[in-house]
Amino acid sequence: MNSTRTRVWQCIVCGFVYDEAKGLPEDGIAAGTRWEDIPEDWACPDCGVAKADFEMQLLAA
Amino acid sequence: MNPILIVGTGLAGYTLAREFRKLDKATPLALLTRDSGGFYSKPMLSTAIAQGKEAMALVTQSAEQMGAQLGATVRTGVEVASIETAARVVRLSGGESIAYSKLVLAPGADPIRIPLGGDAAGEVLSVNDVDDYARFRAAIRGRKRVAVIGAGLIGCEFANDLAAGGFEVDLIDLAPGPLGRLAPPEAGDFVRGGLAAIGVRFHFGSAPKSVDRDRNAVVLSLADGTRVPTDVVLSAVGLRPRTSLAQAAGLAVNRGIVVDRFLQTSAPDVFALGDAAEVDGLVLPYVMPIMQAARALAKTIAGEPTAVSYPAMPVVVKTPAAPLVVSPIPRGEGRWTCTTSPDGIRAECFDAESRLVGFALAGAAVAEKQALAKLVPGWLAAESPAA
Ligand SMILES: Cc1cc2nc3c(=O)[nH]c(=O)nc-3n(C[C@H](O)[C@H](O)[C@H](O)COP(=O)(O)OP(=O)(O)OC[C@H]3O[C@@H](n4cnc5c(N)ncnc54)[C@H](O)[C@@H]3O)c2cc1C
Ligand SMILES: [Zn+2]
Questions:
Q1: Atom of ligand 1 nearest to the CA of B273
Q2: How close is the nearest chain A Cα to the Cα of B201, in Å?
């Protein structure tokens, strides 16, 4: 789908980890979904912080 | 015009400021804090040791950076000593007074400490902010053993993190097992099993009595005579909302600073949120309620009165050795039914009318969190549109 490697992100408020390779299937986000492609109205499943408020921190590329 | 004044720069104070600035870029905004005002993730305090993180690494933005970003004045190292609601001023411990147009109290909570005897009782630590974490890290540097008092959410998280970080951990609680106030016994047993597998030792059913120095180490003594030799004692037995400022100012306080669904205290133009607040009877010291409250309160102080509503807000217990998520039962009681399978537990709590009011999912079952949370009625139902 994309040529770049998947990345791992962390919510700066609660530490929740989003791994692009795994996605969040239970949240309707398919494996391989890049952070940029997650809808703007998405919120961190653990703490409710909106995507627009707290850019996730890049943990690993 | 006098500023909107926020006391506290934790998640509650800063999140409110951020939400307010989305709605109003012009009204002067000031935040006061007695600490250094850096932005950090408090939940990460109980997962930072295994990752070897220093306190400094947890502070992602300084007070100056936050102030610039929020278009606000952030004053650090200042203690609010009193509030005069009639005159609309707060007084700092140095005597200076600051006038406000609206006041928001977000002072957080104090760790509860159980009374302990012994000549090393004064060395017992709690970790409830990033400065506490720095002190705790300094205390455990070069040490091997930590005794954690309190097997609730925070105590279990620290036990897991310390064990994963290579420490010998003793976990002590008067209760018969972990997480008794939050989850059914089956879920507690699951966490106990996971923590035992990474080497945590348990001492349940007896109260800690004293901490005494023993040469280079300390000994924690329990009421039943058990002696737990260790290097550092960490207390994690719960939080008590900081209500004294509000109380001295004559505001209604109960377990927390009493506010209605508009986050308004008993005084006009004085609001409260976060760990310090009791919102419509609920004291919920977690991140998600703060987000909900901050969004509603931002609208209210920007001129559009908005009641907060709470959906069911499951809490993730950060014990990777035994993954657990709990949707607590904030009011009243229920009847738990549990299904245990080799890879986890699914527990559901029903009220007298057989409605699902809470759940606990452990192991692989945690993946069902989102789906189940949708079935649980909100804790503060959304207001029906004004008639
Ligand atoms: C170890 C740990 C792990 C946690 N993990 C989770 C988790 O995984 N998920 C979750 O949802 N929640 C978790 N929580 C709870 C969550 O972190 C808190 O609910 C939240 O951070 C509280 O924010 P607050 O702004 O209300 O309080 P605080 O962050 O305590 O902020 C209080 C502020 O008030 C200031 N202040 C107080 N009194 C005065 C005064 N008189 N004058 C001036 N300033 C004053 C302080 O300096 C500080 O800036 C955890 C808590 C801890 C301790
Ligand atoms: Zn988060």
A1: 26
A2: 27
Residue B129 · residue B35 · CB < 8 Å: yes
Of 3.30.450.20, 3.40.50.720, 3.30.110.30, 3.30.390.120, the CATH number of B323-373 is 3.30.390.120
- The ranges of chain B annotated as CATH 3.30.390.120 are 323-373
Residues 6+ apart with CB under 8 A from B386: none
For ion ligand 2, residues whose CB falls within 5 Å: A 11, 13-14, 16, 44, 46-47, 49
Tell me how far the alpha carbon of residue B334 is from its chain's centroid. Answer: 24
d(CA A47, CA A16): 8
ipTM of the complex: 0.80
Which ligand is closest in space to the CA of residue B13? 1
Q: Indicate the CATH number for domain B4-110+239-301.
A: 3.50.50.60
Per CB-CB distance under 8 Å, the chain B contacts of A13 are 11, 41, 43, 287
Q: Can you tell me which residue has the tokens 């299904």?
A: B339
CB neighbour list of residue B182: distance below 8 Å, 6 or more residues apart: B152, B153, B315, B317, B326, B328
CATH 3.50.50.60 residue ranges in chain B? 4-110+239-301, 113-235
Instruction: Single out the residue of B318, B283, B360, B290 nearest to residue B43, CA to CA.
Output: B318
Residues B191-231: pLDDT tens digits?
A: 999 999 999 999 999 999 999 999 999 999 999 999 999 99
Question: Which of B15, B19, B20, B41 is the best residue to mutate to test the A interface, defined by the most A CB atoms within 10 Å of its own CB?
Answer: B41
Q: For B76-102, what is each residue's pLDDT tens digit?
A: 999 999 999 999 999 999 999 999 999
Name the closest residue on chain B to residue A49, using Cα atoms: B291
Closest CA to ligand 1's atom 12: B286
Report the CATH fold assignment for B113-235: FAD/NAD(P)-binding domain (3.50.50)
pTM of the model: 0.95
